[in-house]
Inverse folding.
């Protein structure tokens, strides 16, 4: 592994996947896209449930790297339907303190039809 980057693997991470849940490099933590499946492998059935699962998955990567939501500077969200935006925003605001990170939200199809949302994030290491 390069000395310029370090993988962040929360406890219970499936290490056979061809990516790292997080990478530390240049003073930042880059968090791979997280989907609406919880640590036990259950996929949420609503946008609210999946959003909570996604943000808890992100929190696990943040904690493993010694960070928290206050350290996140950029978020990119992919949701499958524009009508999900209001419910997503309501839950999102519960997790991210002011000042909230810069954000892009994209309406897009995801790799699996059961996923309604995917979020990736960048955090500044404390």
């Amino acid at each position: 592994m390069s000395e310029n980057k370090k993988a962040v693997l929360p406890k219970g991470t499936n290490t056979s996947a061809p990516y790292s849940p997080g990478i530390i490099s240049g003073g930042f933590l880059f968090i791979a896209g997280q989907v609406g499946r919880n640590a036990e492998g259950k996929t949420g059935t609503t946008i609210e449930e999946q959003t909570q699962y996604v943000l808890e998955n992100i929190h696990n990567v943040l904690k493993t790297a010694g960070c928290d939501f206050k350290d996140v500077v950029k978020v990119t969200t992919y949701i499958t339907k524009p009508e999900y935006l209001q419910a997503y925003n309501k839950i999102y605001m519960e997790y991210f303190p002011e000042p909230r990170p810069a954000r892009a939200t994209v309406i897009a199809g995801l790799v699996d039809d059961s996923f309604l949302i995917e979020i990736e994030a960048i955090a500044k290491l404390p």
About this structure: The chain is about 25% helix and 30% strand.
